[in-house]
Amino acid sequence: MISVDLNCDMGESYGVYALGNDDAILDLVTSVNIACGYHAGDPRTMRRTVAGALAKRVAIGAHPGLPDLAGFGRRNMSITPDEAYEMTVYQIGALEAFVRAEGGRMHHVKPHGALYNMAAQQDKLAEAIAEAVYKVNPELVLYGLSGSKLIAAGERAGLRTASEVFADRTYCRDGSLTPRQEPDALIHDPATAAAQIIQMVKSGTVISREQIEVKLKAETICIHGDGEHALAFARQIRELLQTEGIQLAAG
């Protein structure tokens, strides 16, 4: 039986600003990536999200991002590998403290936004992030874009990795995600997203925006919890995978 993880970025509220459908989506996913205070999140949000995930037996991961609250961590910054290492260690440590305090264990690390995309393409940043994860806890799984430099760096560092694909994003011919500023970056039609997901999971391929078949490995599927129809979309994706006989479980 094919098995795949269904993950969601969450814990991204900040102060009085609420974002996402975290409580409801926790019923639908098998792992979550919790913001650690740099691109989003705050101590109270982190604690509540960790507690909610543990209560529903959902695997917990740190979601470290660039220090850019105003840009939600989606704007590229010029950082050195040392800075990438340090901010990754710092954010993993912050979430790990809440996980331990609530009686749980952390499962994985998945960089966020621009940091994720930069590490997918830049060897030195990828190596710095992989080293940070390994030195904090070599048992953590490193989530990264399928076929990316981050996955390769994680494997070289001796980490278990999870190759990630996206339910609601389009792809370029090199396997990278279409930049968010492009008009066709996001998939809004559930039927189109569903067809793409099944192809990625069952065939290990995706059709790029240039209509080229690209090979990839789909071990974990990311859905986003902050869109207008996020909850309905998440429910449709879960039901689709189960209908297709695909088992849902964090690796």
What does this structure look like?
- The protein has 251 residues and is α/β, with parallel strands linked by helices.
- It has a single domain (3-248), classed as Alpha-Beta Barrel (TIM Barrel).
- It has eight helices and ten strands.
- It has helices at residues 22-25, 43-55, 81-101, 113-121, 123-136, 149-157, 190-203, 230-243; strands at 3-10, 31-35, 59-63, 108-109, 141-145, 160-166, 205-207, 213-215, 220-224, 247-248.
- It has a seven-stranded parallel barrel with strand order 1-2-3-4-5-6-9, surrounded by six helices. A two-stranded antiparallel sheet has the order 7-8.
- The longest helix is centred in the middle third of the chain and has 21 residues, at 81-101.
- The mean pLDDT is 95.
Give a count of the beta strands, DSSP E runs of length 2 or more: 10
Distance between the termini: 14 Å
Radius of gyration: 17 Å
Nearest-integer average pLDDT: 95
User: Any idea how many domains?
Assistant: 1
Name of the CATH homologous superfamily? Glycoside hydrolase/deacetylase
Dominant shape: globular
Number of distinct helices: 8
CATH architecture: Alpha-Beta Barrel
Largest sheet: 7 strands, parallel, barrel
β-sheet strand percentage: 15-25%
Low-confidence stretches: none
Specify the oligomeric state.
single chain
CATH class: Alpha Beta
What structural category arises from helix and sheet content?
Answer: alpha/beta
- What is the helix fraction of residues, given as a range? 25-40%
Catalytic activity: 5-oxo-L-proline + ATP + 2 H2O = L-glutamate + ADP + phosphate + H(+)
GO molecular function, one term: 5-oxoprolinase (ATP-hydrolyzing) activity
InterPro entries: Glyco_hydro/deAcase_b/a-brl, LamB/YcsF/PxpA-like
Enzyme class: hydrolase
